[in-house]
Structures are given as structure tokens and as C-alpha cells.
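Sequence in, structure out.
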Amino acid sequence: MNRILLTGASGGLGTLLRKEIAPHCNTLRLTNRHDMGEAADNEEIVLCDLADADAVMDLTRDVDMVIHMGGVGRENTFEAILQSNYVGFYNLYEGCRKNGVKRVVWGSSNHAIGFYPRTQRIDASVTPRPDSNYGISKVYGEAMAQYYWDKFGVESVSIRIGSCFPKPADRRMLTTWLSYPDFVHLTECCLAAPRVEHTIVYGVSDNDSQLWDNHMAAHLGYRPKDNAEIYREEVEAKTEPYDRDDLTIAAHGGGFAAAGHFED
């Protein structure tokens, strides 16, 4: 590709992708509201608030595909999430539509389906059951992605990211863990697949314990290699078992489902 736009470039996952995605394009355009350091040889750096529609229109010009990792990345007040995950997301898709961007690959979340019980393994066809203000914003994002495919032909992959960390930190993550290498591989698959329309895929590694079924995203070619099971002994030695009725383990969304309303 000639140019890929990466939003949220100074965040945790954005920083990871910045290094790994650069070889896939002639120019990697990076954006965030915060400092992103010095540009490498094939990088462009643009400070931008996605809530600024005019700035986003300029940001998406001459772009082939977008990897969107920007926005509020955890639970917060509705007002805080509104500007980034609603207004900013709309501005991004409008910029992509008007500037002819082919595809958006973006970080949705397991919190879009966080109130499903652990006893139920689900695929991408289920009705959303968000567990938080944050989760609701991801349902909105997935609906936006579907709308822009159906009406305007802008392709999207919505990655319902599980728990993306160097290694699982607690017992829940033995099921939801997405390793860094698997996340990079999944992102590369989302860019390279010949046709995605609007695809929802669960961002999870090849763990022995599974909540999510990715058969509806098989066309992406995602084949995770890592397995949280190798960390089970370490994790269980340093954490206490959950009570079976504790939503932290009983619901897909974990602590987001167990927490009260953020603004109370």
C-alpha cells in the first residue's frame, strides 16, 4: 500500500503497531493528540483531535487504509467517551468516505458483548450486550462500520479485542488473552484479506479456554499461535480463585460487568 493511517499512535497498541506495520506501506501516517516522538524515514506525524471534523478530513486524504486505535480505551464518563468514541469515530468514517479510503481496521472490544455469561460460547452473530459506557461506544462503532459498508462500500474489520498484554495477569485472562504477536498477525490479516465487507473478529489467542468462536471471520486467515495455558501455573500461584457468581469471572466482560455505573 502507498499510505496507511494509524490513529492512537502513542497508545499501548498503537506503539506496538507503529513498528510492525511500517513495512506494509510506503508511508505510515501517525496521529494522536499527544507527542509521538520523531518520525522515522517512512513516517508522517500529524497531531490531531479526532473530534475536529475539518482536521480529520485532511488527515484521511491520500490514505489507502486506516488502522484506528484512537479514542478512550477504558471506562469513563459518557461525556469523555462521547467526543472520542462517538464524534471522533463519525468524523473518521466521514473522512474515509469522502476521501475514498478503502478499509478501516479498528479496535472494538469484548466489552461490546460483556454481559454474556461465561457458560455461553458466542460468535459474531449474537446481539450485543455491552457492559459499560465504553462497551456501548463499541456497539455504536460496530453499527457505524456496518452502515458505511452497506451504504457506501467502505470495508471494515471490527476487532473485539480481548485482553492484549505481554502475558495474562489474572485468571480471567487465561481465557481472554491476546498476545502481542497474535495481535500483530491479526492486524496484518485484516489489511491483506482480499475482501472483508464488514467483519467482526474476536481478538484472542489460541487459548485452551475459549469464550469466542471466530468461524464467521475465517476468510481473514487469522491463525493465532500463542496459548495462555503456559502461564496457568504462574497465574494461579499468585491469584485467588473467583467465586463462581462473581461477574468478574461469570460474565465475558469481567471487571467491567462487575463494576457499578461509572458516573454514580
